[in-house]
Amino acid sequence: ESWLEVFDMYNISKTARHVKFIFPTAPIRPITLNYGMTMTGWFDAFGLDRSAKEDEQGILESSKYVNDLIQDEVNNGIPSQRVMIGGFSQGGATALHAALTTTHSLAGVLALSTWLPLSSTFPK
């Protein structure tokens, strides 16, 4: 919802009429790093350093959700090469993971202030 507000503030959605924007909001869940407080999160976070445990199941579920959104657009006649995904923080991490695991060729991925989750599962 916060990114939609930014796009609306700068009239991006209105001036780019040939572009369809989809702004999914992460589900509400407890985030361990924030003392279990419930908030929007694509997956649980346990720590900020590279050695912190990762919520593999949550990351894979969120990545699948994004890939399902991509597939919906392809099913609606949009070539995957015209689909770009992106996100900020956990959303960026989800977008990166989805982009690297999708079977589709994408136009690109925009990942801001983020990291690659499950990085050890990818080739160097």
Automatic annotation (TrEMBL):
InterPro entries: AB_hydrolase_fold (IPR029058), LYPA1-2/EST-like (IPR050565), PLipase/COase/thioEstase (IPR003140). Keywords: Hydrolase. One of its GO terms (molecular function) is carboxylic ester hydrolase activity. Residues 7-123 form the Phospholipase/carboxylesterase/thioesterase domain. GO terms for cellular component: cytoplasm. It is an enzyme of class 3 (hydrolase). Pfam families: Abhydrolase_2. SUPFAM superfamilies: alpha/beta-Hydrolases. Its EC number is 3.1.2.22. Belongs to the AB hydrolase superfamily. AB hydrolase 2 family. This is palmitoyl-protein hydrolase.
